[in-house]
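WARN retry 2 of 3 for item q-0093 after timeout on previous attempt; input resubmitted unchanged.
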Amino acid sequence: MYRVYRHIFPSVHKELSYWIERAQSIPDPELRNQALRSIKDKTFHCEGGSIYSVLSGDNADKSIQFIVAYQTISDYLDNLCDRSTSMDPVDFRMLHQAMTDALTPGNDCQDYYQYREEKEDGGYLHDLVKTCQDILAESKDYKMVHAQALKLGKLYSDLQVHKHVIEDERIPRLQNWFSRYQSEWPELSWYEFSACTGSTLGVFCLVSYALSGRMDGELAVQIERSYFPYMQGLHILLDYYIDQEEDEREGDLNFCAYYDHQEQMKKRFRYFVVKTNEEIQKLPDSSFHEMIHEGLVGMYLADRKVGKLANAKSFVKDMLKVSGKKATFFYYNTKMYHMLKPGREI
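OK item q-0093 returned
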């Protein structure tokens, strides 16, 4: 925790300051607004993701650069699909080609805005993509994890396309998409599978190990299995849990809404906690991955938005109990951090 607060978070904020400055110079007012909002509202995504830089050894700074740039692409595109002017799945698919290109050094940047009215971003999205590509190109081991990273990246992009179309088409598209994977993951519902695809943690883990020089083909396969579906699913289900009130107000899709009742949701969250713990024991540095697992539970449940939710006290108590003492430590530590963290203006 000392390293996180004294070194990692300050490095994240330094990187974000650069991207804020770039975003402020975007010519198109709508793109500029969404770029700035995505950083202001979702800084904690970059903070949390950058903890994976611990795995990168001497290349921790490179890992943070990649994670901040890749997560900023993700959050920016999410805003463009979620809060902006288009409902066109072709547009969403083209926008998210940026995430595929970011994971593939050598891919040329494309006209990611070609299917929408707003186009002039002053090279902002291209610069984010190139930053990711340049860091990955320097890693001699990245080729060993490229297939796994690309698989997780494409699942993420598929989700973003299906979940942002017009409301009447969202559920049929997501259910049809899941039907292609249901035989592989029969224990998951369509909405849980969708949640499992919505995390960037697996990509961050793969890239950080690749930058460390400790990667081999067997480890690449095991990271994918250990992170998808359960660790990633736990991450995003927690994210949706804290956003329930906000998503209902905004009319946004929230996967927690598809559980039949609160007790069913509690039971399934407990299932994800247990399965996540089983899978991460198969990885090297298992204590680190346990920290991420327990940290996710503690940090998300400490979010201020949880206080607005019905039955939140009971849910938080139950989740902390099943997740262990370290989750409780992260819960109170994060609450204190929110109290002490100075406001950041953009």
